[in-house]
Amino acid sequence: MDRDLISDSRDKPQSWHYTTEKPSEDWFTVGFRPPNSWKQGNAPFGDSRPRKPYTEWSGENLWLQKSFSLTELPETLELLVRHRARVNIYLNGQQIQTVDGHSNGYQVYPLSKEDMATLQTGRNVLSVHAKRLDTKATIDIALRQSTTTQLLQVLTGKDGTKVIDEHQQRRLKDAVRRRDDLHNKPLEENIRAMIVQERGSDPGEL
Question: Is 36 exposed, middle or buried (0-12, 13-18, 19+ CB in 10 A)?
């Protein structure tokens, strides 16, 4: 089951610390605490349509920070990023992703083993620098623990470098769900289900 460490704002507004003024050099490190000059606002940030942002961003640059806590270290994580900007993303001081341009919805980026090694129990920090590319801009980000990412890594032998969109994720999850449903049925039902799938009819009706 997927578990959000940082949720996106599709279902509920998510608060971030942010500033449009260039911060100190250590702004992306795990030890940085946003000073009083930083504001708090709900994602998504931007001004692009058709979706109205919760927090207006009209300048050239935007810096974001959000912290989360871990009691144990997960095996895999993935970023979800919806953007119309050039975006650099940092986890506990290490750059983990750069995206550029205009995304088609929320793009999924599994974290590599090197990225995962930056995690620690207790406080962790996700930091973001977004730079406007044209007259419109938007940014919204999530970080989640996903069984889909674990399965993808097993199936492809990758360590988190492949990008999959949400449509591909849904297809993968549907395949896993169908597999689990089949394994949970008694043997007789499994055979019946396979015959129905192959012939298009219930063997009891033949």
Answer: exposed
Question: 113, exposed or middle or buried, with CB in 10 Å at 0-12, 13-18, 19+?
Answer: exposed
Tokens of residue 185, six digits: 């049925």
Alpha carbon distance 95, 115 (integer Å)? 8
Q: Residue 57's closest CA among 97, 89, 91, 85? A: 85
Contact present, 44 and 140 (Cβ < 8 Å): yes
* pTM confidence score: 0.72
| Residue-level pLDDT, tens digit, the chain, 206 residues | 468 999 999 889 899 999 999 999 999 999 999 999 999 999 999 985 556 668 999 899 999 999 999 999 999 999 999 999 999 999 999 999 999 999 988 999 999 999 999 999 999 999 999 999 988 899 999 999 976 555 555 455 444 444 556 666 667 666 655 654 554 455 455 555 555 555 555 444 44
Residues 6+ apart with CB under 8 A from 203: 192, 195, 196
Helix axes 147-156, 166-184, angle to 10 degrees: 90
151 close to 160: Cβ distance less than 8 angstroms: no
